[in-house]
């Protein structure tokens, strides 16, 4: 599993197109070209927008929902759990197809309902910004439940006595959430935070590939899709490898910053 | 041949030594109790015998063979765990015979052993139940049965009764002794409960902080503690340990003194320790209203009802002393007189905390233990 | 804990709306797949077909080797699942019950691969598959999917919940690791093994990124690839056929999930992150 990774680093120092018999060593040239390319910054910017929306919908919302389901909701608990988790088992290609039709700006059901209120559905697949928002929504449909279930498990594992003690002191619900539940489930919380960023961008690959191929004019491409595009559409393996390695370095830096920043606050469950 | 011998055995995890230099033997066919407070290394010692923990240094012999590197499966041991470790997906019967089947013991033999064990441990009728459908006592008996049918030379028990309630414990202890009388295995039994140790053990090995404190019969451990730790650990309420000075054939506590028999005088002089402490069990300390022969005064501080008798807490020579009294007609704050029974006194060398021993004339006196 | 009804009702509503958003597309797809294109355009909001028809399914079977594609998907998912379960189970067993130097480091490295984006391995893997001459073949899809850190992680967590003393008893009885694995650990870990297998199967069934790189000819396609042919960013003109293919693609994963949901949710909720 580590060999391909090392080989990607190796490839990032060569100029190659996967077909030529010889690879030409170019040192850091690929990295310099990638870093000079304005497209790279556009794609990184897009990725940041993806990350922001994905975190909101697949980290913040399920965290709150998991807490509410565990502490506020009495009935239908297992129904909610099952229903939230269900889309995680369906192919994202299916998800992409379904939403493409449902959100079809002319004849889709959402456009028609909006029409009743005199609203017009934007042609989202052609509009900067909108396109990322909708693709993030489709990706979220798939990963929401998985994140929800793991967060729920972690919150459910918190000792009832601690919460009950707080209830007896009449601590309001939102304070219990921020002062007790979040710190005591932070190990899982951080894990979900990280995979939402890292895997979220990878999951978004599928709707991007299926629906927009990164368009219009790279407006919906993210770093993962762009690395794929460089390698398998433009056949610039060096650029693709360099971009992947840069992506990973940024991820690793993010992780380290994240850990440094919250390390002291982490409460490890089961310890 | 079925004895176990520790030779300079040590066990450490990283830099912490859990067991420090053990040297002792467990005789063939005896019931040896490993007793001590939690964290004293008793379970680790047992697990070294089982082969579940490696010996860090030193030699461990079982049946005359060095077993340091013998895997647990080859050591001829059966073990009962504190949580019983019954396989939750197997019925009582499957649990009991599983190991025998794996060892390819003939079918007839398995059936016979199973029958024996079921009868002896009153498990008939429960054969097809799963562990989750059994009571705590039944589970414990299944665990025993599973160990018994192996007919191993060494029978190891790790706090086997600690999850049972008090009444079940009494009957389980008897069962255990019954099993042993039938099979005569070498039993090593870990417990932190001294009553269990006294009733089950032929000998008790008392451990503290990884060091063997005393290894002897229950009688001697109780009546002739080898050191202060043993004296205080065995018996409840614990032995009173008091500062004393020996001077002019008397033991002096501050400004009060007590005369002692001649043989003790000679013994103390012979021991020639610089500083000594005096030990007396609460049951060997009599409380009286009036001054009498060899009595010393003390103040009553508190009285605790133990059911059959009362524990009276007193201040004596600025130290707290506990005495047992058959009645509670003592008032807090009252001055009373105490008289130690000198037949049952202990004296320890302060420097080593070891007992200075007992006068020769008294050595053969077998203490009555009840 | 007593919490007044007044608080919980708005949350029930929020949950139900979320569930509507998550589940509506699926219901809509099933309904549309049995509707003629004509009806679908005329009554876009109807959840249930007015004149139920199988013509969309018929269209799929006529235009593509549908049976072959379904079988491909099934074979790939089964082989991947089988390999992954066996290797993950053995690895988890070793991580839990063996003591060896560098165990924790190895485990940590393995788990950290969950965080590696696939782009950092995709080109070398693609080259390996091409050099082995496995492009456009089922084995080419299967091979890079055989190792899986997530499975090792889930099963390691599950095995850790089995009391160590059970394994110790077995060791005292001189049982081999093989016997312990087969007679004790596997039966006790069965719920976790079952749900992990289902998770593997569904993930492989739904896999899109690899097949799309490796598979070129339609008779080697898997269902997600076939489905992809029915899409264009406008929603496509014969979207009802696309809905039928969607239903075919999701029916097996959905059935498995609904059948084993208690196991699956149990396994995921007991795998606390450590």
Automatic annotation (TrEMBL), chain B:
The keyword ATP-binding applies. GO terms for cellular component: ATP-binding cassette (ABC) transporter complex, substrate-binding subunit-containing. GO terms for molecular function: ABC-type transporter activity; ATP binding; ATP hydrolysis activity. The keyword ATP-binding applies. Pfam families: ABC_tran, TOBE_2. It comes from the Bacteria. One of its GO terms (biological process) is carbohydrate transport. Residues 4-234 form the ABC transporter domain. SUPFAM superfamilies: MOP-like, P-loop containing nucleoside triphosphate hydrolases. Keywords: ATP-binding, Nucleotide-binding, Transport. PROSITE patterns: ABC_TRANSPORTER_1 (PS00211), ABC_TRANSPORTER_2 (PS50893). This is Glycerol-3-phosphate ABC transporter ATPase. It comes from Lysinibacillus odysseyi 34hs-1 = NBRC 100172.
TrEMBL record, chain C:
It is a multi-pass membrane protein. One of its GO terms (cellular component) is plasma membrane. SUPFAM superfamilies: MetI-like. It holds the Pfam family BPD_transp_1. Residues 70-260 form the ABC transmembrane type-1 domain. Keywords: Cell membrane, Membrane, Transmembrane, Transmembrane helix, Transport. One of its GO terms (biological process) is transmembrane transport. It is found in: Cell membrane. The chain crosses the membrane at residues 12-34, 69-100, 107-129, 149-172, 184-205, 239-260. This is ABC transporter permease. Belongs to the binding-protein-dependent transport system permease family.
């Amino acid at each position: 599993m580590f060999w391909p990774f090392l080989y990607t680093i190796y490839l990032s120092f060569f100029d190659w197109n996967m077909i030529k018999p010889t690879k030409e060593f170019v040192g850091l040239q690929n990295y310099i070209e990638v870093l000079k390319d304005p497209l790279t910054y556009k794609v990184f910017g897009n990725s940041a927008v993806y990350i922001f929306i994905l975190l909101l919908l697949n980290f913040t919302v399920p965290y709150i929902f998991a807490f509410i389901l565990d502490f506020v909701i009495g009935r239908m608990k297992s129904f909610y759990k099952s229903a939230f988790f269900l889309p995680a088992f369906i192919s994202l290609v299916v998800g992409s197809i379904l939403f493409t039709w449902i959100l079809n700006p002319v004849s889709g059901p959402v456009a028609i309902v909006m029409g009743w209120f005199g609203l017009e559905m934007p042609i989202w697949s052609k509009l900067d910004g909108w396109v990322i928002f909708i693709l993030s929504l489709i990706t979220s449909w798939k990963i929401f439940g998985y994140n929800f279930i793991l967060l729920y498990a972690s919150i459910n594992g918190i000792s009832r006595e601690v919460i009950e003690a707080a209830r007896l002191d009449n601590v309001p619900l939102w304070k219990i959430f921020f002062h007790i539940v979040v710190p005591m489930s932070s190990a899982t919380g951080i894990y979900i935070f990280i995979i939402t960023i890292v895997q979220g961008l990878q999951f978004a690959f599928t709707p991007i590939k299926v629906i927009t191929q990164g368009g219009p004019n790279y407006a919906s491409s993210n770093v993962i899709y762009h690395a794929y595009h460089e390698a398998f559409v433009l056949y610039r393996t060096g650029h693709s490898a360099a971009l992947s390695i840069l992506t990973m370095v940024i991820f690793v830096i993010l992780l380290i910053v994240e850990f440094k920043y919250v390390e002291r606050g982490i409460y490890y469950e089961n310890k | 041949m079925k004895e176990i011998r520790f030779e300079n055995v040590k066990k450490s995890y990283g830099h912490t030594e859990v067991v420090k230099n053990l040297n002792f033997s467990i005789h063939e066919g005896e019931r040896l109790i490993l007793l001590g407070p939690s964290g004293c290394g008793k379970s680790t010692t047992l697990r070294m015998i089982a082969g579940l923990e490696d010996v860090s240094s030193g030699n461990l012999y079982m049946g005359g063979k060095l077993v340091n590197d013998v895997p647990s499966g080859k050591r001829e041991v059966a073990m009962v765990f504190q949580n019983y470790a019954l396989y939750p997906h197997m019925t009582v019967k499957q649990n009991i015979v599983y190991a025998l089947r794996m060892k390819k013991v003939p079918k007839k033999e398995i059936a016979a052993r199973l029958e024996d064990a079921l009868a002896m441990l009153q498990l008939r009728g429960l054969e097809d139940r799963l562990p989750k459908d059994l009571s705590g006592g039944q589970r414990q008996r299944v665990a025993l049965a599973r160990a018994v049918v192996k007919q191993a030379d060494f029978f190891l028990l790790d706090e086997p009764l600690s999850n049972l309630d008090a009444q079940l414990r009494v009957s389980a202890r008897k069962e255990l002794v019954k099993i042993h009388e039938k099979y005569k295995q070498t039993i090593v039994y870990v417990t932190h409960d001294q009553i269990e140790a006294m009733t089950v053990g032929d000998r008790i090995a008392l451990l503290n902080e990884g060091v063997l404190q005393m290894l002897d019969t229950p009688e001697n451990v109780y009546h002739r503690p080898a050191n202060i730790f043993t004296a205080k650990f065995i018996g409840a309420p614990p032995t009173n340990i008091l500062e004393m000075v020996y001077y002019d054939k008397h033991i002096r506590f501050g400004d009060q003194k007590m005369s002692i028999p001649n043989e003790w005088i000679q013994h103390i002089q012979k021991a020639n320790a610089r500083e000594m402490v005096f030990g007396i069990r609460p049951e060997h300390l009599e409380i009286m209203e009036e001054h009498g022969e060899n009595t010393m005064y003390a103040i009553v501080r508190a009285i605790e009802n133990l059911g059959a008798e009362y524990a009276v807490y007193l201040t004596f020579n600025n130290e707290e002393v506990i005495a047992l009294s058959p009645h509670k007609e003592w008032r807090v704050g009252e001055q009373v007189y105490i008289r130690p029974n000198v037949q049952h006194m202990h004296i320890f060398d302060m420097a080593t905390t070891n007992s200075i021993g007992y006068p020769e004339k008294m050595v053969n006196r077998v203490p009555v233990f009840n | 804990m007593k919490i007044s009804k007044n608080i919980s009702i708005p949350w029930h509503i929020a949950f139900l709306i979320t569930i509507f958003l998550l589940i509506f597309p699926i219901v809509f797809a099933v309904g549309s797949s049995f509707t003629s294109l004509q009806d679908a355009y005329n009554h876009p909001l109807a959840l249930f077909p007015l004149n139920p028809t199988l013509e969309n399914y018929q269209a799929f079977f006529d235009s593509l080797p549908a049976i072959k594609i379904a079988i491909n998907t099934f074979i790939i998912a089964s082989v991947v699942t089988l390999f992954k379960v066996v290797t993950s189970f053995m690895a988890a067993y070793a991580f839990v019950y063996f003591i060896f130097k560098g165990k924790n480091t190895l485990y940590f490295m393995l788990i950290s691969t969950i965080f590696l984006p696939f782009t950092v391995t995709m080109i070398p893997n693609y080259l390996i598959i091409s050099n082995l001459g496995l492009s456009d073949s089922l084995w080419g899809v299967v091979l890079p999917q055989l190792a899986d850190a997530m499975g090792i992680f889930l099963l390691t967590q599950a095995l850790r919940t089995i009391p160590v003393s059970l394994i110790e008893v077995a060791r005292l009885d001189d049982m081999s690791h093989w016997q312990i694995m087969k007679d004790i650990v596997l039966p006790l870990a069965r719920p976790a093994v079952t749900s992990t297998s289902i998770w593997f199967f569904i993930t492989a069934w739904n896999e899109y990124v690899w097949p799309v790189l490796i598979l070129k000819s339609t008779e080697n396609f898997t269902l997600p690839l076939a489905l992809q042919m029915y899409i264009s960013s406008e929603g496509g003109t014969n979207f009802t056929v696309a809905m039928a293919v969607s239903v075919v693609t999701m029916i097996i994963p959905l059935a498995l999930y609904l059948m084993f949901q208690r196991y699956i949710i149990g396994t995921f909720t007991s795998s606390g992150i450590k």
